[in-house]
């Protein structure tokens, strides 16, 4: 792997060792806030378009981080938006010019951050581009628009910096860990950044300043194309789609084996979102297996080696469909078909009626890692890691998109509510993807992996896992992890 390096005229960067090379990253923290006016040189007004989970979190974090400077953060919403009332309760108002029509806010801003829904952005970006000030920066937190522009033969308007800052966690996590960072310096959600267009040489520091202002503990560089692929694939695989397939199929497996409902839920969903996620977060992937006694380790090994290949096959298929635009087209077609109609929810299967009873038992005993569940989950996570590595993604992106975002952002929220609740309440793009690919993972686990787990484990696959370079990459990233877990409200 070649070195991933970049420079900054504002921030002091550092080098992180990763498998096969190094990456240059920025370590965040509130001590860097005084540098933000320099990073945002030429920017006096930041317009955040959208008030979904990311829009709300980013607007609030930016405003708080820039308090006391002459930079203003404004929120732009479409006419008649139901989100306006909530934006007002958070202090953005028409009276002081910090809340307004999205096109008016875009026209009056020096940096316009586009956080409206993907389908809406695909439909309305020409209107936004038309009203931009000369030289105004265009900010993205997702590469979906790039994919759409390529599909339709469009492009970003010339003469504008185009940058992305992509937090590796859901919007609620971005806000809550930022708030916790008021007490623990550096607490936050890691972010990647990309410079897609840099007409005046200021784009990198613009992006780095944005990431620091969001509270990112560390920021690493990628490309908009690479971010789009890893993000969309991850949503459909280990972050949402695959984890839903895992817990649904395992709940059924344990019920058929004679477990009562509560025990089956504890061995499946509760195990993934609880002890397995915590172990990976605090000690890495290898620690899950190493913490088991020999007999349980054999169960893990058989589950791991039976699951890896079918999971890898689906992750590769998802990646291909993201890369060639098929997945993007499916999202846009679904949006057109569904329109404003509500999507049906997936939380109607029998297992989710058990969730409240399981949560009521917490604190009564320490739930151990279930070795079979752990083997299935870790194999699926490793399959995604390997697919990203083979496709040339940088290691910071690989471990953040495949591991850190899962165990430090999404799984804690799933633990507080449940996996089905998360899938039913995530972004439309992620929700559509999870609903499409989750059943594919379910079928692969039930029809291929679980029957194969009755056979002895594959020694070669286990050896590859034990010596996997991801362990080194995760250990490097762990040195930058804030000493605080996300606080999820009840």
TrEMBL record:
Gene Ontology molecular-function annotations: isomerase activity; ketol-acid reductoisomerase activity; metal ion binding
Keywords for this protein: Amino-acid biosynthesis, Branched-chain amino acid biosynthesis, Isomerase, Magnesium, Metal-binding, Oxidoreductase
Domain KARI C-terminal knotted residue range list: 223-365
Gene source species: Streptomyces aquilus
PROSITE patterns: KARI_C, KARI_N
Pfam families the record matches: KARI_C (PF01450), KARI_N (PF07991)
Record bears the keyword Oxidoreductase: yes
GO biological process: isoleucine biosynthetic process; L-valine biosynthetic process
Required co-factors: Mg(2+)
Protein name: Acetohydroxy-acid isomeroreductase
Binding site residues for Mg(2+) 2: 231
